[in-house]
Amino acid sequence: MKIGIDRINFFTSNQYVDMSELANVRNVDPNKYLIGIGQSKMAVIPPTQDVVTMGANAADVLIDNENRDKIDFVIFATESGIDNSKSTGAYVSGLLGLKHVRSIEIKQACYGATAAIQLAKGHVSLNPNSQVLVIGADIARYGLNTAGEPTQGGGAVAMIITKNPKILSLDADSGFVTENVMDFWRPLNHSEALVDGKTSQNVYLDFFNQTWNEYKNKTGLTVADFKAMLYHLPYTKLGVKGLREVLNEATDSKKIELEREFEAAKKYNNQVGNLYTGSLYLSFISLLENSNDLEAGDRIGMYSYGSGAVGEFFSGTLTDNFKSQLPKINLEERVQVSIELYENMYQNHLKNDGADIYLDYSNDKSKYILIGSKNMQRQYSIQ
Ligand code: COA
User: Fold this and answer.
1) What atom in ligand 1 is closest to the CA of residue 183?
2) What CATH homologous superfamily does 3-166+332-382 map to?
3) Confidence at residue 351, expressed as pLDDT on a 0 to 100 scale
4) C-beta of 234 in contact with ligand 1 (< 6 A)
């Protein structure tokens, strides 16, 4: 039975900062951000959006009368959780009106959404008529004026996993690895991540090679069998480095093809920044929408990495109707905000300090919004 991604959508805020402007204010050569790190714009998530609202905003258009009653499992992957007990899955199921479902949250840094897909695949294989809503949503926060600052961003990707999927059919085998590494972590009392960026880069590339080699050994496939290679993109330059690891195994024509497809695959991530769990899947959407060469049957390789650390290389093939299922992403309609406004929004995110607060949401036209906190409970609204 074929199982995979039947529907997919992406949500981010409608505001961004320009990376050249951020570099100028931080007294850094803009080319460090634009070329060295590979980011042109960075999504700014306003206080009126958190992972729950972004997840709901991404998932909303994927649910209709055709699939509403078939969805029986909601798996929400995030490393920006808002509660130590109650799952973001339960919050989002409530907002979306999904009642006859199992709802959970899953965590392993940026790898979480891939773990969710693997769980969903197992669930559908045991229950072929079931559909699973998988969401990966995060806000990447490293702190103002830190080395990690230019690699922030945020957003959500939502996917429906089914049998006979309309976009991508997942292959059976993958290569995977876990090691207990301290390259990126966020202690419970921190709203910002702690990161050893150089270690993270090294483990990411090492795990890519380990999982890619395991995949090749298991499947007998080689780089020649792939139309495109996708990577978890905390910043697009890291994916460039990951791609280099396989290019020396490719013929000249395959090398040109993989580089061309990767250009299409990194376009949206370059404009949004890091969305942790959703980054690999935003890159998938970017490939689908910006490549002119994809055809049904093309095999796509995907490398998922979550600090701490877990890596997995897996793959899928595009299905017959994938072109008719693409979401309409328009990043051009977003509004550029000043560095001052970005800093203000960064500092005024909703804190878990117990105080009652009512947020001004007049500028947020999204369907699902966070409007404040009362009695230590987040208050959401649908508009
Ligand atoms: N023009 C072009 N490139 C420039 C440049 C300039 N003027 N100045 C610097 N660069 C290049 C550097 O050569 C380097 O390239 P390389 O990686 O190919 O060697 C790159 O820009 C970054 O410079 P570096 O000095 O290493 O930056 P940094 O110490 O400020 O840290 C990160 C960069 C990415 C490590 C940091 O932002 C970070 O830790 N981010 C978080 C990473 C993360 O999310 N990890 C967890 C998930 S995987």
Assistant:
1) 46
2) Thiolase/Chalcone synthase (3.40.47.10)
3) 84
4) yes
Question: So where are the chain's domains?
Answer: 3-166+332-382, 169-325
> Range with the lowest mean pLDDT among 103-112, 296-305, 319-328?
319-328
**How far apart, in whole angstroms, are the C-alpha atoms of residue 52 and residue 81?**
9
Query: CA-CA distances (angstroms) from residue 49 to 135, 350, 378?
Result: 15, 9, 11
Structure tokens at 322: 């994938």
- Listing DSSP states for 342-358 in one string gives HHHHHHTSPPSS---EE
Ligand 1 centroid to 354 CA: how many Å? Answer: 37
Phi, psi (deg, nearest 5) at residue 20: -65, -40
Task: State pTM to two decimals.
Answer: 0.98
| pLDDT of 352 strictly over 90 | no
- Nearest atom in ligand 1 to 201's CA: 48
Q: Are strands 71-77 and 102-106 parallel, antiparallel or unpaired?
A: parallel
Distance 36 CA to ligand 1 centre (A): 6
C-alpha 120/C-alpha 116 separation (Å) is 6
Q: Is the CB of 35 under 6 A from ligand 1?
A: yes
> CATH: 3.40.50.2300, 1.10.10.10, 3.40.47.10, 3.30.499.10. Which one for 169-325?
3.40.47.10
Compute φ and ψ for 229, nearest 5 degrees: -120, 125
Report CA(200)–ligand 1 centroid distance (Å). Answer: 12
Mean pLDDT rounded to a whole number for the chain:
97
Q: Are 114 and 314 in contact (CB under 8 A)?
A: yes
For 153-189, write each residue's pLDDT tens digit: 999 999 999 999 999 999 999 999 999 999 999 999 8
Query: For tokens 């070329």, what's the residue?
Result: 35
What is the distance in A from the centroid of ligand 1 to the CA of 261?
Answer: 23
Instruction: Copy the structure tokens of residue 78.
Output: 């995030």
- Residue 125, CA atoms < 13 Å, CB-side half-sphere: 14
Q: What is the pLDDT of residues 9-67, one digit of tens each?
A: 999 999 999 999 999 999 999 999 999 999 999 999 999 999 999 999 999 999 999 99
- For atom 33 of ligand 1, the residue with the nearest CA is 147
Q: What is the DSSP string of 79-102?
A: SS-S-SSS-HHHHHHHHHT--SSE
Could you please report the per-residue DSSP string of 146-168? Answer: STTGGG-EEEEEEEEEEES-SSE
Cβ(202) to ligand 1 under 6 A?
no
